[in-house]
């Protein structure tokens, strides 16, 4: 299983994630990249942990398999040894009936054999109490003792004839003793056979129990491995599903954010257009206002001038009216005088001229009631009445038309003014409403974005906290399970070693009990063979143990055999003289000497038996002491482990509380910052609203003023038009007066002629005036006005026609001005729209700046939170490392104490298996190194942080110390977990090795022995180990990297970023 890859640090990814964050879309993309990078880092860390766990499981499986193989080999060896011993015992037991037959054939040696069997019979029951495995030794000693007795009986047969009489005397006693010895021997043989069967059954039971235990352990271990594999697969599937869900959610969020951004951009563009139009319209209104002000000033000047001219014309008109009235009186008086004077030749001509002169201008006068008018006067009166009626009708109609036209013009102007006012008010209200809706929508969108950001930040924090808690819990559970498995495996190994040691001790006791029954040469041969056996056993043990504890292990293992050898030598020394004496001493001539020898042999056997019992009791005491010590040490270790676990849990709780406090502080600070930002935004919005209101009020006031000025201007224009018309009429009247003056100058001559007639007319007029004064005192003003109107009616008709044409022209001008005013109003609206657009653009710019500041603050807060979290995590990791080192030290302290034989034996086996495991790991690392060097793929740089053992060769305590010293006191970035995991795994790979240096594996040493030789992979001479470079790569390496094959599917699946 190869590692999956590594994240080369957070710098590149964060730089790539935070490179272009412009606006909402950029921030969303950067946050998505950051989250993607974090998720990939977490997945890489999980793959590292899974890889480490798989390696641990493989190592445990290999160690258990090696233990099983060693245990089976030892059991097979023991079974072979027991079979050989049983065959030997059976052969010896088969030789016994042959010796009995030989005894029956020879009559003389029977007594000697019977006397020789007595000490054996007396010692066999004693040997039963000495140990469990003594009956086989009896079976061995019986035939040897019989052989000795047969050898002794050969010289005694020569003197059998001399002692025939004595033999017959003691024959009865010997038979009785022989029968008793035979019965005792049979009982002892039966007991020995029963005990052998019991031992066989016990051995079978122990073998079956050990096989069952190994099977149970294998089944449990397989189940746990399967459960771990399933859990890891489920965990990876869940992570993959979460990754897919997060990617989908991020894509959806990005699409929604992009749509929002586009909508906001379109809204901003429309608002900008509106503001620009309003600005243009406002500028046009300002220009129009300035033009109107200039027109008002000019109209004021013209109105003052027209007022002055009107006053002058009124004065002149009054003077002219007085002059005309005086002339009329003069003419009338002259005409009366002419009429009254008879015989005047030109009276008719004068009257016709007077009627012509008076017809269009003068008002008719009522004749006196007492006076009868003539035919000329009646005609004149009728003409005057007709002219008066026509003039009054035409004047009334003209006045009505003029007034109606003036009223229509006023109505149109009023309606246009009202329409403009309503349009302006509606436009302003629409603007205010649009601004209010935009402000409300902006506030709502800002509040929604704030809420979303808060929720996202809270969810991210909760997810990070949950992930960290779950990872910590999983690591703790894995650590606890691994510790329990290690303890169980150690306990099982100890039990197996105790069982093997007991079986070996039993076999050694059996062998130690054999020699006293044998002869001196056989004992010497067995003593010569025993050192060779011990040497073989020591060689086997030394092959299984490591080279760092050979002397201590040899001493501890040689203690028991040395004691056994010493005991055997002492037994031989104590037993050999008797036998030698029996061999070398001549046969006594009497039976008391034989009895004394038998007693001495019995005493020797008893002393040997006592020594063996003392040794057995000592061994039992030693075993009891060792078991008690082991139990005490196990209890101490359990207490230490419990205390350390409690300390670790307390520290974890403290760290979790600290992290929670830090999180609460960060959340409080975040809330405070959000509150401050909300307050600032509310204040800014209020200020903007106040400014808009002020601007709106100012614009309304300006528009009111402009409308008032326009109204005043229109009124001034109307007054000016009226004054102009009056001036024109006055000018026309002046022209008429000039023409009248000319006519009067022409008619003066005629007037002189008709003075008489005029005098008569004046008399009539004086009479008529008297009547008028009496009758029409109240109507003098009307008569004067009528006379004036009669004079002016013809001129007025022509002037009114001209005025109609002028009024039509004025109406056209007013319509054109109304159209221009409409255009100006449209321009003002455009200016207002432009102004609104500019205001919206300014607001958008401010909003974007505020959003950028908010995003920067959020980024800074998130970076601070991430840095705090990484620092806390690094601190926790450093604490975990320190705790693990303390645990290792506490585990290594009891190991550094006095080493015993069983401990050293166990350590040797475990270290042998670890060395085998290291050989396999080295082979794998060499193959992987060769593969990576052949490919020159950049995946090597990623996989190197996952490499389980990056340095070829085995770990020594010096390298281990260096790696522990190279660990940083404070881990800054998250990918440093790779180095931490690597060191932690390397430290766990080499347990129980700190006592002495470890030799290199024979697979890598050229001078290794044949017992541990392993096939060494051939390394090509051209291939060199790949070295990590951070930027100074040669072009050849780059070309090789470009030509390298694509990465595998699992790499692209987990590390697509």
Please mark out the parts with pLDDT under 50 across 5 or more consecutive residues, or reply none: 1-24, 113-143, 342-349, 353-376, 513-521, 546-590, 938-1044
Give the strand tally: 0
String of helices and strands: HHHHHHHHHHHHHHHHHH
Shape: rod-shaped
Q: Report the structural category.
A: mainly alpha
What distance lies between the first and last C-alpha atoms, to the nearest angstrom? 22 Å
Tell me the Rg in angstroms.
70 Å
Average pLDDT metric: 66
* Discrete helix count: 18
Binned strand content:
under 5%
Q: Helicity level, as a percent range?
A: over 70%
Describe the model:
By secondary structure, the chain is mainly α. It is built from 18 helices and no strands. It has helices spanning 10-17, 23-105, 108-130, 135-158, 164-340, 347-358, 375-513, 520-544, 550-584, 591-753, 755-775, 780-895, 901-935, 939-943, 957-966, 977-989, 1035-1043, 1049-1054. Helix 5 crosses helix 11. The longest helix is centred in the N-terminal third of the chain and has 177 residues, at 164-340.
